[in-house]
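This week, work through this protein record:
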Amino acid sequence: MTKKEVTGKAATRRYAALLRGINVGGHKKVPMAELRTVLEGLGHAEVRTHLQSGNAVFSSTRSDPRALARELEAAIEAHFGFRVACLVLDGAYLSAVAAACPFPAAELEGRQLHVTFFSEQPPAERFAALDGPSYLPEEYRLGDRVLYLYAPDGLGRSKLAEVLARPAVVKGVDATTRNWNTVAKLVELTRS
């Protein structure tokens, strides 16, 4: 007998919701207290937010992160009056992303290491023309629907980050970036 059959309920999963491009320069303001209310209104439990940049964690018995993301996007648009791209990632996936980091995260400052999460894997040929060595010491590596970026002087000064964010690279894919400190905190919050 499965756990679901014994309890009569679907298993609860922990998720992180990453909102793209909110609370930047006074545009697309989404107060975190209101975001928590929106998530709770969708029936999610144990809702918490992290920072003001659109990071939330929650529990749900639903098992389709893409459907959860679409539902959250619609709820945010209905509540705030504008569209915000959302990625919903389950805790196991976040842990796997952290474990697969090709850079020595423990030895770096959080501002030096970033992860860009994609709604789907961008085609590898979009990165083929990029002359990586010309950006050293900055480096990037692709993973499972993620891009890891080592930018020793931070994201704001990164020439490689500018190139990687161009429409030709991310065309047709929702993408949002978090520094390593935020990624580690979201891993921790989705485990608890």
In short: Helices lie at 3-7, 32-41, 65-80, 91-99, 125-128, 159-164, 167-170, 180-191. The chain is about 35% helix and 25% strand. The longest strand covers residues 13-19. The beta strands are 13-19, 45-50, 55-60, 86-90, 113-118, 139-142, 146-150, 175-179.
